[in-house]
Records
---
Amino acid sequence: MSDPSKEWPLWEVFVRGKGGLSHRHVGSVHAADSKMALEHARDTYTRRMEGVSLWVMPSAQIASSDPGDAAALFEPAEDKVYRHPTFYKIPDGVKHI
Amino acid sequence: MYTTDMSGKTKAETVAEDPALIAAFEARVANDEFIEPKDWMPEAYRKTLIRQMSQHAHSEIVGMLPEGNWITRAPNLRRKAILLAKVQDEGGHGLYLYAAAETLGTSRDEMTEALLSGKAKYSTIFNYPTLTWADIGAIGWLVDGAAIMNQVPLQRTSYGPYARAMVRICKEESFHQRQGYEIMMHLAAGTPEQKRMAQDALNRWWWPSLMMFGPPDNKSPNTEQSMRWRIKRDTNDDLRQKFVDITVPQAEAIGLTVPDPALKWNEERGAYDFGEVDWEEFAAVVRGEGPVAKERLQARQKAWDDGAWVREAARVHAEKRANAKVAAE
């Protein structure tokens, strides 16, 4: 039977599409170490010039928010419309603001 | 990328789940929202997805075998480079899908073991042999063509990681189909022997390609639930009809004949009428009685066994280096 401790760990792969863009998550690979993870990421996710740079990080190291907390975390922003510039009425004649 | 719906395996879940959670889930899916790995989902949804995605992944990996078989015998360097790239893509597609399936809580090794033990299926199409070079053309054109038909709607499937994997796959798949059609086109325009070879390949791959859409709708018990959950977006018969309608003119354009005496344009329906698929044969191939089924699994088993020492050595080496680094700090 499969023994999870014998599987190569999982790594999350991030690709920078081109200079000037941030790295973006594209998927994951299994690899014994970071060097192999980069090689696998290259073969798996950049066969068609999808990127100019790769990041890999152990999946186990990622902390993420709980979907159950989504309302508590993100909904308060909904009633704070004053954080957006369109909230403020400026006379038409006033320019460059 | 290849998927065959091998429905009929999932049983209704009997574990009691919170009706409020189920209702909320159903509403999200009905509203075309994506479900992500950490979201609550019914156990039956999770299981159906693991089954479908892992079988899809297995099909990609096993699908490397019939074509890999021809890499050394491709007729020229151009064809060889193309075939190598295609087979590498299939491996990549398998890996996207395994990774997406792992987000549902199954491990890569568990999936591999399920394939090797015969518990998990893969597309029946790969249990047919590739006898001539024209088969490589027919596979790209028909098998990848049928796969595209199946996969395009899956880009909007309700499970986020699956949908994202399908977007990548569909982008890459179109080259597969076109290179296959190009092989057939050249053979069909070649010597009489070459044209015969192309026609023979079409004759052998046509019906198995139609089987790739899975059993007819009235014998596909999971279709309704899978469509409600947006795991599946079209019925087997609808996709099969679409494939026939698109492919017949492609065959005609290069002077090849689809091997179905019942094939006839139906003006009223605006679609082709076509003959009945041999579902007995389909069932037999699903049961593992395909002409090269044993060979395929033996090849996967051998690759798994031969690679065991590499997996082990790399793991132990990485552990040692990590430990040495900790000790040095």
---
Amino acid sequence: MGATADAIRRKLTEAFQPSVLEVVDQSHLHAGHAGHRPEGETHFDVAITSDAFTGVGRVERQRRVYAVLKDELAPDRVHALALKARAPGEA
Amino acid sequence: MTDTAADTLPAAEADPVRAFIAKTVADYPVVLFMKGVPEQPRCGFSAQVVQILDHVGVDFVGVDVLQDEALRQGIKAYSDWPTIPQLYVKGEFVGGCDIVREMFAAGELKPLLTEKGVLAA
């Protein structure tokens, strides 16, 4: 796991105490696409389940995650972050 | 019908990019700020949203943020949302690719669009 993935995992764990957290580096799937860099860590899939999202709308959930990952989402770092933010019990 | 509104930038405004965005989302009921155009998206996430909007059969306007770096950054600030694509319905920010996909999968997208009066029931 790379440094950026570690940072994403650590920051999301601190901020949301998730019951489920999956951080998958998908960069290899985007080789040759915009934003891809040979060293990877440009495209991530994140699935997070946390009580913190209970009663919180979709847009607000993602805004909160983006806010926590502001440094990682800066230009020239992570190019794309696909995000599933769920409250416990949601499919 | 889909077309692009990226070539209608107003010339002289205090913040022309912001003014352009505000006018675009006011003038058009469904606007997708995307990379590329609906007929030829230049990003997989934009392509997914186009596909979903086409599938539900709603008319929308695509705005290609790759045509203008100021617009690309401006829409992020306008929506307080760091990623592209971004969907607006009746001037309201709905979400990006993840949210549009989730709403579509949950059967919530069509009801939202009909409720907003932009898609026949």
